[in-house]
Amino acid sequence: MKADEWRLLITIYLPIALVLLWGEDPKRADLLNHTMALVQATTLVCRFSSTPERALACRTFIKEWLDNLYSCYPHTRLHAKKTIVHIAFHIYEFLLLFGPVLSWWCFPVERLIGVLQKFNSNSHVGGEHEATVVKTWMRSANLRRWLNRKDCPELLRQFHRLYSMYVASADPRKEDPDPKPVRSTERAHFDHKGLHFFPGVHASGK
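RESULT FIELD:
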């Protein structure tokens, strides 16, 4: 799973499933509250805006999750300590320094990596594939530079015009010039401790 799929899992699907499964089970109340602390921390981090109060609340939820980890899951005492837990506490500082995670997370980079992985490398390893990608990018950059120059040859301009027309006609996304977004009135949602969680606005008071 990619990072964004994990985000959807922890902020939407997993909370809904756990509330339905454990919400009325007193024996699992501690497990539910423990998981929801991590859910709320993740939800706060993924908001489109950030404030010092939200950053502090995020760190508080992470600490609550960590403090109750051994009591909820005693077997984790036998596991080696993970540096990722320590790093999670530094998210508080990053939120104060850089603002919302949306502006500095790695999803765009992961998407680019996914695009590069689809390139046919003909089983070439050891830098040949990377060199080909760089050379192709440099050639396209040089071509764009030529097209933007005032002394660009007319033949090159005409070729660019014809090529652009061909690409536009071959692009299936151009079939509908005014696509209508599909809207649905149904939303996945769940309630926990007086808060109503649903996509778009992750938490709101009743």
